User: Which sequence fits this backbone?
């Protein structure tokens, strides 16, 4: 599936199945000569997270603007995805099922991004997988709504990594997240969007959405590390 003159073709995916059943998904088409495909994982289902989340959508738009096919899916129990929420382990298997589908269907190396809970799941799913050539964690959560997150696995994760959060992230405070991420294996880049909170919205001191700044930071990292640029 490729882009048309009107833009990337978008289609529903009907044959993506995880251990708990069918997973609702959509695929944005890419250029015929795309060198990578992208996977984007959504935030916590119990907080209303879906593949249509605004940060997930804006992340997809960056990959799509670079000509990559992009898969988004709903974790088990979200939207039309079968199964029930499993507090992490099941969702990790869902992400791995999505990677398997991409390998079988698209046959391209993958750049994997996730937002909030989706970053925690996506980083684990992609870490050490030879199919995954780069990892992006957006809004890295540290403690959110009674849930604590641990990232020791990143010490063994040698793919290029971008960690991108708001400098005023209420669920991943910089004073806790930055020292933790410094233990991640190289290569890595840790970037903070000034005046942005967890959802890359503005703060009272710096009003206005910061999603465009998030997109530019992601696009710059993809250009530097993978040579990806928007078509002329």
Assistant:
């Amino acid at each position: 599936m490729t882009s048309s003159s009107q833009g990337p073709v978008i289609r529903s995916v009907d044959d993506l199945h995880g251990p708990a059943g069918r997973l609702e998904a959509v695929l944005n088409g890419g250029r015929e000569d795309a060198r990578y495909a992208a996977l984007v994982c959504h935030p916590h289902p119990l907080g209303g997270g879906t593949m249509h989340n605004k940060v997930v959508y804006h992340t997809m738009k960056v990959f799509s603007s670079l000509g990559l096919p992009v898969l988004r899916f709903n974790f088990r129990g979200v939207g039309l995805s079968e199964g029930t929420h499993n507090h992490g382990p099941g969702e990790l298997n869902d992400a791995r099922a999505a990677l398997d589908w991409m390998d079988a269907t698209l046959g391209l190396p993958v750049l994997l991004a996730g937002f909030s809970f989706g970053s925690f799941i996506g980083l684990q799913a992609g870490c050490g997988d030879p199919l995954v050539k780069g990892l992006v964690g957006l809004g890295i959560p540290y403690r959110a709504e009674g849930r604590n997150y641990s990232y020791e696995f990143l010490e063994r994760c040698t793919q290029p990594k971008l960690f991108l959060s708001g400098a005023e992230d209420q669920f991943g405070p910089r004073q806790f997240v930055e020292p933790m991420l410094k233990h991640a294996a190289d290569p890595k880049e840790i970037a903070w969007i000034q005046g942005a909170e967890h959802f890359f919205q503005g703060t009272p001191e710096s009003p206005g959405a910061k999603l465009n700044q998030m997109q530019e930071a992601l696009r710059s990292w993809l250009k530097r590390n993978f040579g990806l640029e928007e078509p002329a």
About this structure: Residues 166 and 193 are 5 Å apart (CA to CA). The radius of gyration is 16 Å. The domain at 3-224 is CATH 3.40.50.1820 (Rossmann fold).
